[in-house]
Amino acid sequence: MDSHEHPQSEKHQHGHVHRHGNPHDHQHARAPAAESAPAPEGTIYTCPMHPEIRQDHPGNCPKCGMTLEPLMPEPEDAENPELADFQRRFWWTLPLTAAVFILAMSGHQFGWMEASAQSWVELALSTPVVLWAGYPFLARCVRSFVQRSPNMWTLIGLGTGAAYIYSVIATVAPGLFPQDFAAHGRVGVYFEAAAVIISLTLVGQLLELKARSQTSAAIRSLLGLAPKTARRINADGSEEDVPLGHVHVGDRLRVRPGEKVPVDGVVTEGTSSLDESMITGEPIPVTKRVGDHVIGATMNASGSLVIESEKVGSRTVLSQIVQMVAQAQRSKAPMQRMADKVAGVFVLAVIAVALLTLLAWGLFGPQPSWGYGLINAVAVLIIACPCALGLATPMSIMVASGKGASTGVLFRDASAIENLRKVDTLIVDKTGTLTEGRPTFERSIGANGFSDQEVLRLAASLDQGSEHPLAAAIVAAARAQDLRLATPADFESGSGIGVRGTVEGRKLALGNTALMETEAVPTAALGEAGDGLRAQGASVMYLAVDGTLAGLLAVSDPVKATTPEALRSLKAQGIRVVMATGDGVATARAVAARLGIDEYHGEVKPADKLALVARFQQEGRVVAMAGDGINDAPALARADVGIAMGTGTDVAMNSAQVTLVKGDLRGIARARKLSEATIRNMKQNLGFAFVYNALGVPLAAGALYGATGLLLSPMFAALAMSLSSVSVVSNALRLRRTAV
Hints:
alpha+beta, six-stranded antiparallel β-sheet
């Protein structure tokens, strides 16, 4: 941030409820939902595969039929109602599935009963499996037709439904079928296929639900960081432990050794070392003294502290990190658009292939031809599940977002993860980005009759209206010298080159030479002094009083210790680094020379930074912008990837797609490596899904029968379908072990 700016209000995030489909869908939702603890009021539910679907009650996605999940994951110990429901359905019906399978496979060989009686026994055994255990799948199938949105449940419902209904008719009215349909003394039935497919689909759903729950582990771990209580110091000096939700802004809280800081605040008493690694990813403890800010959920290692709470509830750093991670996990990557388009026509194509398979086998296959046709058509419907295709990118995004958060890098959306690897040009702000952003006052020099001390007093009086780090350094220096500060009026900040206002009835302007030119105030009288200070890397600001040059002030801002390493890492990745700062050209030159930055721009306004981003983009470059100030916001928004320092303003973070919690530029290199690993993972998932279906559908249709005499049983098709989804989720989970 390189110019004085207005104080900004805290960031607010509000959820918007969008209803999709039938508002009564929740009546058909997870059966045990009523038995479980109700979700917190205001919970928003969304689809893992279609994040644009959001509603304020549980239910199923109108597009793909998957059960909607809470936008914010449940705590680690919370029971998943759908998982519990599927487990109950699976285990209660597994003995029935095993019995009907054994009977169908060997009953005719051992002659356990008459053929017609065997069909009735299989009907009795399989009906609870298909109609009760498979009810969620059949209901989703029906809903896919009502919603005119064919999906994986359309295929599963059609496959099992066709096998079951055909078998029921063959059992109840066998006389309706030609003699060609008879086998082993009865019309062939396929109850075992329908039952086994339902059981295997339940197994696949159980495995997938458990695997998918791990993709939200990062958010759950973040939610678990916050302490449950805080020790509040009352007005009379007494202390009491209160629930965290009862802490308000302005409360004084004691943090004892070994305790977690309850909320964001500022230290008013004591000194201690805090472990902030759970928030920033930085393992080295940070010393906190009076006046320093602390982050909620960080661990107090040694001394006792008294803090005054500044942000509570959803406005704490931890809460905002959780919200950003959840938002990124539920966003849709550009690569997913291709998968969505393919999946949109995929189901209809599979149904057409299944019908062709039925007809081809029925008309031209060996006896019983229509029996073969039905079984192969069912196998085609079951194996061609688009679930793997739909989960390929969302699962990778969810894991990558959590991985980034654990290393202090927050992605706002999936497109940031996908685009960051393409970046070849990085524009960086100076103050607060390359430098500490906590500058110290060096000196003031008076001119035209103004003393050095008066220049400092007037500048500090005006800067009381600014939150800029340079302003804070000037105000702190004036107060340290016990100078009497006046209250500014008509404070104005928005030019990106300085501030204006009225102090003690005089019009003041404080900023760089660009501001002085705007005010028509010549700076030649102090030009030599200013150039000398800038050559040393100091930021120089001129003060004009009623249109007359009053003096200059020099403030130095040390370069972050991590900046040189970060720049070396970025250059090693082939990224062109350009510095753009509101400071003078001489200051910019000095800092650039010290850091080995070849291209720099000084005295740039917000519009200039925006134009710089646009110029590089017109040259065909993929541009990232890193900054922390309000004046950086337009450029952050325009860049292909905006990167904000977590130590900066809320406006900058709202404008950016990536936030570095610690404000450490090394996070950009880490984020880029994670971006590359994520895209590789997504391509692996999509490639597997495409290859799986390209091989599975012809195999299920009987393409190899002529050469090998082998057919794919619908039961094996169901097992392959379930394992395909699990394999995609498992591959995505490998990202958690990626070294960045």
